[in-house]
């Protein structure tokens, strides 16, 4: 095996090694005593020395050393032992057998020996060999990791430990695991990091102490690789409350990549489900594997690098070389193959890229294998060009797969053509008609859109599309006298023609640094639209879907909805200074394109700034071409930009802020808060500078965007800030900074443009008369490439991953703050407690999203709804929360009380409640006055909270404590006595008066069944209270009194007797029966409608006022309901144990030596 080269100084003369082979630079040696049969004294001595060493430290019997003639430095490439004298060797390889070490020796002779002779400097030889050996080690390590990836036996063992240690439901699937350290302050804890679909978990057991850490991915706010004074490479996970550092991974790059993918997928699945679409392999979280995540990362990079549709799935990545005729050599790089494309990227960034749509391919053939052209294939395309790839591993399988995909693509094209022919007779106006109606982006079906409106009138001939770009009709009038601009255009056209001859003129052209320089100079007006189509590959979509746009227009025009109203509102705001959009021709074309796209992609529909971009596209492209360019921009080049939250634009805005800190540190240091600059830049990203630069300059920016993607906008933004850095550092406030940048952008000119100057309606104008120097757009773009053009697509994508987490969490924080702002005025709960309660509420929703496979819990989170309605929970989730935070714990009766509370709060009967409902009921329980608490309890025991079909709960007591025959005179501790006959008589008289003065009661009366349930709840609430006995005695007295009130009231209503007879009836009843009616579940009561229909005349009833008045007579009951309650301890306990209801007690139990860490 190859070793990392290390210097070894030999200080003794003992000959431990025997040289077997030697060349000018390398020495192959055998350990003495190995292969000698132990016959010689020296061999036996060395053998004995090796034998007494620990088995893990024994020296390999063979090694290879690097020795540089004339130098004291040697390199041991096989083993690192000492030779003679005081010379230093480099150990670069070791072998357990002669066959293994000879393989390494042969490789060195064939690949390095002849190369080293060209070096003059001895140190260069050492550096070169070290670099080669390190590369071999990296390749060897990666191949071993691939072979050993997810050893089934080891993974099953880790899975068993994960399940036993964290006790998650089966739906919580383990993705992978790593051995690492978790830092607690300055102390590292060695353990195991488990990465599952919803959580990051860490477990350690050290010196009798158990450490568990559970971090939901959805609570991760930042994920980054950092260094500190103790460790040079650490993964830091930041949550709302803490930062956790993990280090000493065997492969930290892989671990961080998987963590990054899991955080991104989970956050977007749970928090950005408005528009985010998972790859097919990731749709079911329980089926996600480590390989799926790695494939997703590769797919994301592949699509971003070549700017291909989301439906493209990467199949093979193969190292190869491509014949590049412009350089007359083979260029080393990689071939990427997907469903519909063959792509090539050179290893030297930007040297040469090629995109070959399979629909352009005629044939894929294998050539004869030779020493000069090993494993070659030829890909021939329709433009009579051929691409030669060589050095392809597993060529036969690759060609077979490519031919199969080519067959599928050609078959799909044939279907389109057949549909086209079958519909031609029905479409006299348009020649291409084979297409579809509104579809999801990237999934174009085969169903034709309806061409008739609701009245049955054919709309087909109503819309004639623009066959030419609008510039051809509206630019000519202003071009007289612009000879200089025209001559510059002719020069540019000549340069482009020369380039096309050498590099190709189709979508399959060689894309090199030379074409980038031509784009930076500005594309000629006559070629701009065509090259935009090629660079964005919209030309492939256009050719693949003939007539699709026509039928979208037919299906969408004439319909009225909110989206079309927004489009109509913005039509006349789109480049109003341009003559093309001062006419109905341009306005109508813009209306058709925007409406058709909204019909195609209803998830995006229409967003502001799309009108400005589409207007410019229509100036340089035909109407149907402009539509496909818009598709390319919205769905591929600027993903997630165009929705109501503009998540994508905010992510890039955050990336831009980081680039400012990295590339312009002086400006970042002066402007401590870069939020202002980032906010100003939002319009740069959304409109590609079209809204803030003169049009003739901004189109050059769009040229660069279509060639280089968002990277061009980043680097141009940095160049603009650098050009104004001094003024920005001297600015006094945000307004002045905005004025500086706006004035600068307003004066970015394009002197070479053949167009007449067109004022920018959207630009910021100031009254400052100070002369502002003019900046040439070509110079600005050139500076942006020279100074800030070194960021690769891969770097930008990694930055997007990192900042997408921050942006999504920022939206969640905004949602929380807005919900709290609405709720805080209506409750008395402390703001910090209310914030923690909201976190519990949200987490309860997310727990259901994690593990509930029975219902679409994620549908209850809708970012497009008002803030207060974005998160909602159902009855089971509410019950879980109620058990954790409610002060009214009633033992087995708690679930019943929680269900009734949920029904009471569910006013719109959709079986879901919002956070405000939970906060309001807890506010009553913790902070309400006694009468408010009793009223709330009263409502829980009448419809709709208490339903007729609800099973009556069993008594929590074995023997009844109450009876209607209990004595009505009770002695008090101070010797006084209360005559309850007199008290009852007075209360009934008050009730009669109240009936006369108040015709409508706020709350309906309670029936006998409902009153029994009310009493059971009170008894359950008093259980295990320190004053339990006093409370039971008091409630027995009050309940007896209320039963008698109800019975007397029932009799008075049925007989029509006056209130003077009540006491006699009551006294007779008091001595008549010893029957306990309170907890007798068989009491027959008339049914009432669940919607609080009034009881019939003569029924047993009691009012809220009587219940409240009776309870107020007992001081122990008053004390119970008025004693202060603390919500914070409940919240702290709930944070630790919220998972327990789903994980069979996880986190509820702890031992003295057990430490549980949680980020909540």
Kindly give the count of domains: 7
- What percent of residues adopt helix (DSSP H or I)? 40-55%
What's the CATH topology name of the largest domain? Helicase, Ruva Protein, domain 3
| Major sheet characteristics | 8 strands, mixed
Summarize the structure.
One of its GO terms (biological process) is system process. The protein is 47% helix and 14% strand.
Features:
single chain; 1160 residues; alpha+beta; PH-domain like; 7 domains; eight-stranded mixed sheet; seven-stranded antiparallel sheet; 39 helices; disordered C terminus; TBC1D8_PH-GRAM2; TBC1D8_PH-GRAM1; GTPase activator activity; GTPase activation; repeat
Write up this protein.
The structure is a single chain. By secondary structure, the protein is an alpha+beta fold. It has 7 domains: 2-147, no CATH class; 161-291, PH-domain like (Roll), CATH 2.30.29.30; 308-411, PH-domain like (Roll); 460-503 and 511-637, Helicase, Ruva Protein, domain 3, CATH 1.10.8; 647-790, Cyclin A, domain 1 (Orthogonal Bundle); 838-927 and 1127-1160, no CATH class; 969-1122, no CATH class. An 8-stranded mixed β-sheet has the order 11-12-13-7-8-9-10-27. Strands 17-16-15-14-20-19-18 form a 7-stranded antiparallel β-sheet. A hairpin with a 2-residue loop joins β9 (199-206) and β10 (209-216). α12 (525-536) packs across α18. The longest helix is centred in the C-terminal third of the chain and has 31 residues, at 793-823. The chain is globular. The chain starts with a strand and ends with a strand. 40% of the residues are buried. Keywords: GTPase activation, Repeat. One of its GO terms (biological process) is system process. One of its GO terms (molecular function) is GTPase activator activity. It comes from Gallus gallus. May act as a GTPase-activating protein for Rab family protein(s).
């Amino acid at each position: 095996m190859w070793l990392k080269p290390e210097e070894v100084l030999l200080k003794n003369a003992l000959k431990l090694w025997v040289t077997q082979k030697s060349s000018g630079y390398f020495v192959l040696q055998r350990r003495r005593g190995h292969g000698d049969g132990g016959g010689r004294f020296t061999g036996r001595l060395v053998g004995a020395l090796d034998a007494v060493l620990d088995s893990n430290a024994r020296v390999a019997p063979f090694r290879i050393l690097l020795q540089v003639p004339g130098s004291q430095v040697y390199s041991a490439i096989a083993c690192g032992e000492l030779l003679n004298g005081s010379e230093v060797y480099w150990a670069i390889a070791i072998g357990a057998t002669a066959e293994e070490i000879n393989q390494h020796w042969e490789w060195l002779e064939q690949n390095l020996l002849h190369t080293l002779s060209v070096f003059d400097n001895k140190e260069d030889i050492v550096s070169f060999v070290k670099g080669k050996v390190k590369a071999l080690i990296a390749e060897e390590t990666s191949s071993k990791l691939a072979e050993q990836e997810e050893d089934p036996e080891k993974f099953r063992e880790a899975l068993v430990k994960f399940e036993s240690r964290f006790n998650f439901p089966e739906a919580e699937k383990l993705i992978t695991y790593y051995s690492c350290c978790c830092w607690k302050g300055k102390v590292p804890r060695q353990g195991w990091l488990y990465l599952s679909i919803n959580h990051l978990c860490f477990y350690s057991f050290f010196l009798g102490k158990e450490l568990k850490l559970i971090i939901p991915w959805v609570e991760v706010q930042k994920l980054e690789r950092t260094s500190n004074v103790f460790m040079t490479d650490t993964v830091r996970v930041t949550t709302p409350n803490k930062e956790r550092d993990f280090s000493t991974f065997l492969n930290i790059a892989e671990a961080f990549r998987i963590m990054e993918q899991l955080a991104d997928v989970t956050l977007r699945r749970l928090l950005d489900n408005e528009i985010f679409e998972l790859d097919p392999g990731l749709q079911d979280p329980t089926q996600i594997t480590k390989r799926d995540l790695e494939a997703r990362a590769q797919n994301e990079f592949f699509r971003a690098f070549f700017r291909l549709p989301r439906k493209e799935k990467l199949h093979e990545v193969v190292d190869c070389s491509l014949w590049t005729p412009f350089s007359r050599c083979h260029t080393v790089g990689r071939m990427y193959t997907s469903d519909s494309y063959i792509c090539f990227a050179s290893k030297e960034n930007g040297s040469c890229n090629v995109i070959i749509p399979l629909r352009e391919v005629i044939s894929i053939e294998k050539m004869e294998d030779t020493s000069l052209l090993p494993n070659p294939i030829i890909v021939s395309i329709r433009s009579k060009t051929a691409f030669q790839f060589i050095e392809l591993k597993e060529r036969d399988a690759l060609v077979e797969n490519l031919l199969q995909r080519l067959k599928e693509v050609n078959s799909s094209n044939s279907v389109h053509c057949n549909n086209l022919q079958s519909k031609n007779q029905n479409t006299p106006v348009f020649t291409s008609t084979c297409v579809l109606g509104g579809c999801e982006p990237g999934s174009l079906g085969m169903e034709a859109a309806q061409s008739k409106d609701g009245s049955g009138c054919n709309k087909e001939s109503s819309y004639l599309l623009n066959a030419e770009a609008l510039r051809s009709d509206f630019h000519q009038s202003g071009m007289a006298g612009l000879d200089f601009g025209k001559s510059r255009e002719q020069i540019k056209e000549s340069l482009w023609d020369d380039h096309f001859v050498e590099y190709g003129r189709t979508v399959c052209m060689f894309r090199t640094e030379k074409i980038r320089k031509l784009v930076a100079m500005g594309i000629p007006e006559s070629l701009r639209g065509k090259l935009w189509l090629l660079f964005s590959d919209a030309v492939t979509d256009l050719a693949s879907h003939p007539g699709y746009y026509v039928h979208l227009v037919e299906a969408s025009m004439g319909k009225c909805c909110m989206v079309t109203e927004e489009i109509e509102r913005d039509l006349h705001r789109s480049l109003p200074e341009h003559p093309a959009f001062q006419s109905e021709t341009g306005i109508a074309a813009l209306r058709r394109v925007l409406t058709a796209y909204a019909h195609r992609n209803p998830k995006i529909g229409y967003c502001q700034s799309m009108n400005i971009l589409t207007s410019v596209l229509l100036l340089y492209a035909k109407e149907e071409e402009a539509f496909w360019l818009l598709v390319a921009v919205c769905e591929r080049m600027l993903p997630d930009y165009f929705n109501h939250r503009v998540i994508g634009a905010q992510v890039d805005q955050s990336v831009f802020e980081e680039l400012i800190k990295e590339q312009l540190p002086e400006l970042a240091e002066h402007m401590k808060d870069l939020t202002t600059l980032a906010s100003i830049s939002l319009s740069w990203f959304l409109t590609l500078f079209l809204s803030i630069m003169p049009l003739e300059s901004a189109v050059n920016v769009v040229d660069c965007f279509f060639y280089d993607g968002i990277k061009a906008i980043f680097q141009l933004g940095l160049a603009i800030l650098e050009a104004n850095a001094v003024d920005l550092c001297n600015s006094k406030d945000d307004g002045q900074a905005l004025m500086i940048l706006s004035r600068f952008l307003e004066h970015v000119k394009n002197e070479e443009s053949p167009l007449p100057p067109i004022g920018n309606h959207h630009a910021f104008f100031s009254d400052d008369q100070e002369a502002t120097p003019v900046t040439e757009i070509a110079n600005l773009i050139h500076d942006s490439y020279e100074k800030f053009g070194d960021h690769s697509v891969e770097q930008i994508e990694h930055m997007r991953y990192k900042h997408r987490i921050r942006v999504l969490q920022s939206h969640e924080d905004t949602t929380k703050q807005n919900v709290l702002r609405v709720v805080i005025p209506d409750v008395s709960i402390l703001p910090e407690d209310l914030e923690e309660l909201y976190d519990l509420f949200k987490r309860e929703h997310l727990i259901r999203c994690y593990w509930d496979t029975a219902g679409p819990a994620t549908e209850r989170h809708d970012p497009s709804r008002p803030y207060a309605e974005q998160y909602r929970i159902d009855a089971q989730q509410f019950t879980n929360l109620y058990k954790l935070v409610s002060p009214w714990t009633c033992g087995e009766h708690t679930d019943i009380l929680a269900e009734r509370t949920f029904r009471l709060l569910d006013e719109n009967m959709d079986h879901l409640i919002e956070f405000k409902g939970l906060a309001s009921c807890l506010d009553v329980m913790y902070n309400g006055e006694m009468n408010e608490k009793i009223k709330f309890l009263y409502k829980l025991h009448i419809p709709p909270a208490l339903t007729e079909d609800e099973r009556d709960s069993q008594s929590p007591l074995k023997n009844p404590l109450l009876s209607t025959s209990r004595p009505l005179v009770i002695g008090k501790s101070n010797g006084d006595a209360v005559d309850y006959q007199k008290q009852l008589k007075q209360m009934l008289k008050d009730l009669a008066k109240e009936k006369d003065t108040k015709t409508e009661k706020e709350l309906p009366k309670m029936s006998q069944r409902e009153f029994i349930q009310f009493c059971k709840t009170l008894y359950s609430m008093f259980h295990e209270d320190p004053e339990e006995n006093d409370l039971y005695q008091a409630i027995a007295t009050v309940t007896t009194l209320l039963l008698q009130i109800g019975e007397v009231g029932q009799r008075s209503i049925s007989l029509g007797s006056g209130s003077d007879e009540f006491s006699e009836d009551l006294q007779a009843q008091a001595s008549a029966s010893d029957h306990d009616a309170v907890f007798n579940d068989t009491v027959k009561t008339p049914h009432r409608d669940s919607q609080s229909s009034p009881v019939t005349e003569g029924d047993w009833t009691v009012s809220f006022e009587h219940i409240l008045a009776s309870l107020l007579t007992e001081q122990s009951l008053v004390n119970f309901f008025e004693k202060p309650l603390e919500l914070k301890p409940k919240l702290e306990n709930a944070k630790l144990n919220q998972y327990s209801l789903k994980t069979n007690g996880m986190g509820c139990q702890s031992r003295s030596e057990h430490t549980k860490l949680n980020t909540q």
